[in-house]
Write a structure and sequence with these properties.
With 384 residues, this protein is α+β, with helices and mostly antiparallel strands. It has 18 helices and twelve strands. The longest helix is centred in the last third of the chain and has 22 residues.
């Protein structure tokens, strides 16, 4: 058993959390006392709080029946509830926009490398021991008598201070290969470093082609999270040092050209957000378009075999390959200031396509025209 360290953070919670969130956590603890279960907030919320980052993603671990507790909490908070019986987890959607993920304290067994886990009930410490990295093993008690007590079973506080990404056990990457992407993502997001031992385990797992065995939905989710990072270029560059981006496709080469494309995408997305704040865009997809720009349709279909993109996203990515060149050529011949012609050309295309194509075009003044197009047409109605 690991040595458990505790620290009272109840006063810290009062000073850094919004009052509505603090009240919510107290309400959860109050219900847990009533139902005679122990409840803890775990993971990213606690990690980010300790390094001074706001993170209101609430992940709860229940020492007891998490499904039953989620139903009781649903009634108390008047929330919507979604249950996943297989993994004994639940998700609450609150009226104020917050969400709460609940899980039974559990252990996980993997029948073979990269398999989905078999779940069994367990204690908090055993639950934390199955997680990916030490920095994600911190827990805060929410029950009244121990409210705000930090539980550190794996020297996570020390690794946070030393800015270190450290794996919990030797087979972690074999159990879940997507943790390789997660290690790189956390390292670059927080400006931490993957410790040498963990790095060696990553290299050993990649050498065994373990990413090829990962579940499609897990790979897809991690790729999207990676490309949604504030600075995807840093993550892509670092991932390239491990497997040369083979995890996406072996024909992708990280070089100055690709780096330039990714930087350009960041600029066009910044521009889009400035003028179209109320419209959503799949940022990850625009970056992916840049990354796969030099691939052909056959390569793209091989990517579809690895990642579980939905049909609409696949259609958009295919359309870029099939007709993107024609649109780029047409963009070149649109007269300057003819915003209506630009609107007609882009009509019916996904906003992600528009961003990528405008960004790729070498026509002088096209980005300025695009800004006017966003203001005049897109903010009125996005026709896709």
């Amino acid at each position: 058993m690991p040595k458990i360290k505790t620290k009272d953070l109840s006063k810290k919670l009062k000073t850094i959390l919004p009052i509505h969130l603090l009240d919510l956590l107290r309400d959860i603890g109050e219900l847990a006392d009533k139902k005679k279960v122990a409840v803890y907030i775990v993971g990213g919320f606690v990690r980010d709080m300790l390094i001074g980052i706001s993170n209101f993603d609430i992940d709860l671990v229940i020492e007891g029946d998490a499904i039953a507790f989620s139903k009781d909490l649903k009634e108390k908070l008047n929330a919507k509830l979604k249950i996943s019986p297989r993994f004994k987890t639940a998700k609450l959607l609150l009226n104020n926009g917050l969400s709460i993920d609940l899980a039974m304290a559990r252990t996980e067994f993997y029948a073979y490398p990269a398999a989905l886990p078999i779940v069994e009930s367990s204690s908090l410490v055993k639950d934390l021991s199955r997680r990916d990295f030490t920095i994600n093993t911190l827990a805060l008690s929410l029950n009244k008598k121990t409210f705000g007590i930090l539980i550190d079973s794996f020297e996570a506080s020390r690794d946070l201070k030393q800015k270190r990404i450290k794996i919990l056990h030797d087979l972690s990457f074999m159990d879940d290969p997507t943790r390789i992407l997660r290690a790189v993502r956390f390292e670059q997001r927080f400006n931490f470093r993957i410790d040498k031992y963990t790095q060696n385990l990553i290299l050993a797992a990649i050498d065994k082609k373990i990413l090829k065995k990962a579940e499609k939905f897990r790979m897809t989710n991690e790729l999207i999270l990676l490309l949604n990072e504030p600075n995807p270029l840093k993550v892509i560059r670092r991932m390239n040092t491990f497997d040369e981006l083979d995890f996406i496709h072996p024909n992708i080469k990280f070089n100055k050209s690709l780096s330039k494309k990714i930087k350009a995408v960041a600029e066009i997305i910044k521009c889009y957000k400035k003028y179209c704040q109320d419209l959503s865009v799949k940022i990850w997809m625009v970056y992916l378009m840049a990354i796969i720009d030099d691939l052909n349709i056959h390569d793209l279909k091989e990517i579809f075999a690895v990642f579980n993109f939905n049909k609409k996203d696949k259609d958009i990515l295919l359309e870029i390959k099939q007709t993107g060149g024609n649109v780029l050529e047409a963009l070149h011949f649109i007269p300057v200031r003819k915003i209506s012609e630009l609107a007609e050309l882009l009509k019916g295309r996904a906003v992600e396509e528009c961003l990528f194509l405008i960004n790729k075009s070498k026509k002088t003044g096209i980005k300025k025209m695009f800004i006017e197009y966003l203001v005049k047409y897109v903010n009125v109605k996005l026709d896709n």
